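About this split. The held-out portion is used to measure sequence recovery: a designer receives only the structure tokens and must propose an amino acid at every position. Recovery is the fraction of positions where the proposal matches the reference. Here is one held-out target exactly as it appears in the evaluation file.
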């Protein structure tokens, strides 16, 4: 309670990448639950659209413009948020992310660097900027949105899996490092949910496909079929709310039937079996036709 005015203090939460998918669902849900939400957008136009969506659903939230891949933008936005909230946010939801699908052979250094800037360095930078305020107040929450694919490396999505695997490692370290300061840190690992992310991944595959690697057509069809069948992002938003409202938030929340099945299956499977399953699902050939033919001839 705010003793001076006798009413509950609204806790401030920044949600990065709040202009669509999981981020928008989370920002709107948290606003509906009474949080003082600051959603980040990459342009003022998108920020205005988010505010309009909130107003249309009878909620209110505030926005700032933030490009997480740009350190200057991160410092400016977090400074602005500190002024808006009178000293900094109670919680951070690092949700902004990009897919960057394509075979390892086809993804350039530049593309990989951008992916890591957004999915990994950007998220950690936002944590670093929010932590001094949390430390000062002796409490805070950080929720980092990883992916089931952070624990199940996925062919033609290797860099994405790597970025989320690294995000997961840093999140688990941060939780231990900040426990003494009253900052609770959770990782959320969604499976597939229908957002623009899978469409972006399909576009990435089309751009990366130079005809040299196998599996692109099948992966495009797979992502399209998955996107058409899976639910919208609301279950992930619900889970993020749980991580923020639970008195004892869990270290890790895995969301969605696919992730809850695939992650443990991958953990217990020998590598040869998980490789085989990935070959079957992606259509990536197990042996080269040339080598298989040569083997037959010599047999
Ligand atoms: N959907 C899934 O199946 C799924 C599964 C596992 C994990 N995830 C993770 O969930 C998070 C949200 O994804 P989503 O599915 O909701 O995707 P989405 O609909 O594409 O939303 C991504 C959000 O991140 C923002 N963003 C992208 N690059 C940014 C940058 N450089 N700086 C600031 N903001 C940036 C986007 O802004 P713009 O609108 O301006 O592009 C958008 O608001 C991501 O971290 C993703 O890896 C998603």
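Reference sequence for scoring:
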């Amino acid at each position: 309670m705010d003793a001076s005015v006798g009413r509950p203090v609204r806790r401030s939460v920044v949600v990065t990448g709040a202009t669509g998918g999981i981020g928008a669902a989370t920002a709107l849900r948290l606003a509906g639950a009474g949080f003082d939400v600051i959603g980040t957008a990459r342009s003022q136009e998108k920020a205005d659209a988010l505010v309009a969506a909130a107003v249309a659903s009878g909620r209110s939230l505030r926005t700032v413009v933030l490009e997480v891949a740009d350190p200057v933008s991160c410092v400016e936005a977090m400074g602005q948020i500190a002024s808006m909230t009178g000293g900094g946010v109670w919680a951070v939801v690092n949700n902004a992310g990009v897919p960057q699908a394509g075979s390892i052979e086809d993804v350039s250094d530049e593309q990989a660097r951008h992916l890591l800037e957004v999915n990994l360095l950007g998220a950690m930078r936002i944590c670093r900027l929010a932590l001094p305020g949390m430390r000062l107040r002796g409490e805070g929450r950080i929720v980092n949105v990883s992916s089931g694919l952070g624990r199940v490396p996925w062919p033609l999505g290797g860099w994405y899996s790597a970025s989320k695997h690294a995000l997961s490692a840093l999140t688990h370290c941060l939780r231990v490092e900040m426990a003494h300061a009253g900052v609770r840190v959770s990782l959320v690992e969604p499976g597939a949910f229908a957002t623009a992310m899978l469409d972006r991944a399909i576009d990435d595959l089309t751009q990366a496909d130079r005809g040299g690697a196998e599996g692109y057509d099948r992966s495009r069809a797979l992502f399209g079929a998955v996107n058409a069948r899976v639910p919208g992002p609301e279950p992930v938003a619900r889970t993020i709310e749980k991580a923020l409202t639970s008195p004892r938030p869990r270290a890790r929340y895995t969301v969605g039937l696919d992730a809850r099945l695939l992650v443990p299956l991958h953990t217990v499977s020998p590598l040869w079996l998980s490789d085989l399953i990935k070959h079957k699902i992606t259509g990536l050939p197990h042996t080269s036709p040339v080598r298989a033919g040569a083997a037959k001839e010599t047999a």
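Annotator remark: The chain has one domain: 12-285.
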